[in-house]
Amino acid sequence: MAAVAAQKLTKQHPLQRLQAPSRGVSALLHCLGLCSFAYSFAYLVRNPNPINESYGWHLQYLTIIGLSLAALTFAVGLLADLTLNRRLFAVKNTLSVASAPMECLISLLYWGLRAIDPALVLPPSLPPIPTTADLSFHAIPALALVADLLLFSPPWAIAFRPALGLSTGIAFGYWLWIERCYRFNSFYPYPIFGLLGTGERVGLFAFSALLMTASTALLTWTYGVVNGKEARREMSNGDVRLKRKEKGARGVQGE
């Protein structure tokens, strides 16, 4: 029985709520997510606008960059489900460290700015986005990645400094990218960038980096709330038990 319990541990982390990789619910989530992402990309092709012909294409938008990373994360996840390959599963979980917080950031910024004034994120020169497409771009990726993280992934935790470094690198890398696109196109993808001076744009990207770091911390905390925070495994007489970390346990003897 101990051998069976040990084999189960090698297939699924004790804190992982549902089995993954698997050809069941995990594969279904990844398939549905990829279908939504494919619909979003198809919408860009079937509904061309001046952005299609500009330098950088729609990858000028953080939304589309995040969508591309989300699609890559779920594609690797689906391959892991179909092959039951643990290495692919580990790659998917590594990608989600960046893609899940980024999609949360995109949704927070988009819907927050849109609530203030839609003209901050939706250029008036472009046709309005239908509700279905709007949700597929700015809501479903975040919801799908968070569901994958909470239900089908082992716990991942990234310390504050690495999280801040990753978020800062993404934020300011994107800033350099849109400035390059501006030199060719003479316009910014999001109208809010054109309303801000250089210093104000730097402040906006710095704030975005902090917000993405906060999203990472919140996701880690939420995972603990949903799945627990047990961290130490013990095996005795075929029983697999989890023991919570106890503060101040160091130095305690005789237990």
TrEMBL record:
One of its GO terms (cellular component) is endomembrane system. The chain crosses the membrane at residues 25-45, 57-82, 94-113, 133-152, 159-178, 204-226. Its main location: membrane. Keywords: Membrane, Transmembrane, Transmembrane helix. It holds the Pfam family Far-17a_AIG1. It is found in: Endomembrane system. It is a multi-pass membrane protein. This is FAR-17a/AIG1-like protein.
